[in-house]
Amino acid sequence: MTVRHEIAAITARIVERSRSTREEYLARIDAAIDRGPHRTTLSCGNLAHGFAACGPVDKALLAADRVPNLGIITSYNDMLSAHQPFETYPALIKQAAAEAGGVAQVAGGVPAMCDGVTQGMPGMELSLFSRDVIAMSAAIGLSHNMFDAAVFLGVCDKIVPGLTIAALTFGHLPAVFIPAGPMTTGLPNDEKARVRQLYAEGKVGRAELLEAESKSYHGPGTCTFYGTANSNQMLMEIMGLHTPGASFINPNTPLRDALTREATKRALEITALGNQFTPVGRMIDERSIVNGVIGLHATGGSTNHTIHLIAMAAAAGIKLTWQDISDLSDVVPLLARVYPNGLADVNHFHAAGGMGFLIRELLDAGYLHEDVRTVWGEGLRSYTIEPHLGDEGTVTRIPAAAVSGDAKVLAPASAPFQLTGGLKVLHGNLGAAIIKTSAVKPERRLIEAPARVFHDQEELNAAFKAGELTSDFVAVVRFQGPKAVGMPELHRLTTVLGVLQDRGLKVALVTDGRMSGASGKVPAAIHVTPEALDGGPIARIQTGDIIRLDADAGTLEVLINEAEFASRPLVTQDLTASHHGMGRELFAGMRALALRADAGASAFGEMT
Question: Which UniProt keywords apply (predicted)?
Fold first, then answer.
């Protein structure tokens, strides 16, 4: 089935908007393809440095330039559950490459930080910019120009977007992303959230809270809720950067290893030395980006990707906007209910049919561009499968199930959970903002209440603990944008505002910061742009001003006389304390260079 006309029209306007920057980008990568990573063009000294640590066989192969060389970019560390499984991947990849007649080298490592560890801590103010650091770190690894293709080992929040930016910057190379998979199911996410609320209310102690958290986050793999990490995996598959069915297989299983070996061999097959050359910069185009946005809406994915997708697209010369994302949300149905949009976790989603079922439903209903290129070949139809372990440790694939294994978790396109996606852009006299609606009950999507202004989340938490929050209000937490403090996630507010909402209050959040990819039931206008430090109207709000947030209408306004509001001076804030300690002083340049949230919040400047 051809793609629906609304989606075709949005794609066409992205193509037209991006025409000049995309053409410039493609010209650059075509020139790089023509030059090629031919190792025999390196001086003897260059080449000797490049394979000095290799064994005799690999040295001979690389010296002769007869075989493809695969560059491994890894985000391995053994503190973070999602990235710990990558410890064994380089050896597995090198073995698989040798079996396929190629060579693999670890080209470089990139940092991988965990927002779950740094929530509410000073390190969280480095989180967003770690995406750009990751992209630059990967670029350093690939800059040796020894490689015919690259594989990227990454899972979590900023890591995959950073790696994608790097892959597209080196768009003349084929790129395959290899995931580690989610941890097995532990304590249900709703039970974890219940204990968090009890702790916030002082009804249980730290020991009970830590026990619940440890039972939830209990082993190797990604956290099982549907936050940014698992949204990343969905994106990589629906955009064709994973091999089919790779996203949600648990770590340290025979099938996970088989998929890794297969991805390695596939990366070698699509180099310029073979007949299926697939440079990632040509493979990923405007249709691929639109497919990613559609997947985000259909699954109720992370709000963080309203920033990351714009930055990722820009790396390929493609100009994606918040309005594109919002307009696609208006026409794409919600097909998945995974926590915080439901009670299930990603293992339940996978068991219900997972990515194969989801992609098949979206394709058959005309919501996805089918005629895209992927690392697996032409067309997205080959991703409508379930992966299984075959004979001798190989991967076999069968067609995705015709019927969902659990209609409460994964719905067919003919009977969606709601007719629109889970994200919306808000506009009004406070600027533009993003709201995630998929977990917010319809009756809570409109709120009109007095503002209470805070300059960080600790101020709000202190007011809660002091018993000061007893009536309806809209919390305005400002000076949290990328230029101010690196745009941290304000996840600690989720529990407090959830408690107040459960007590019967009407509450909402308006902030120029971010919320967690797991943001949920409280209406939150986030990523407010322009931010307070950049002269945004949010810096003029005073406690007591009436704010109206209407998620259905897509509006965010302060209800005050326009002239009076414009005449107010912009409030300033001393941010010195947030610019030092825990490495934050090293990021002063990135804060100064950061683009607005609706332009991707990148410190690289305008890439398109």
Answer: 4Fe-4S, Carbohydrate metabolism, Gluconate utilization, Iron, Iron-sulfur, Lyase, Metal-binding
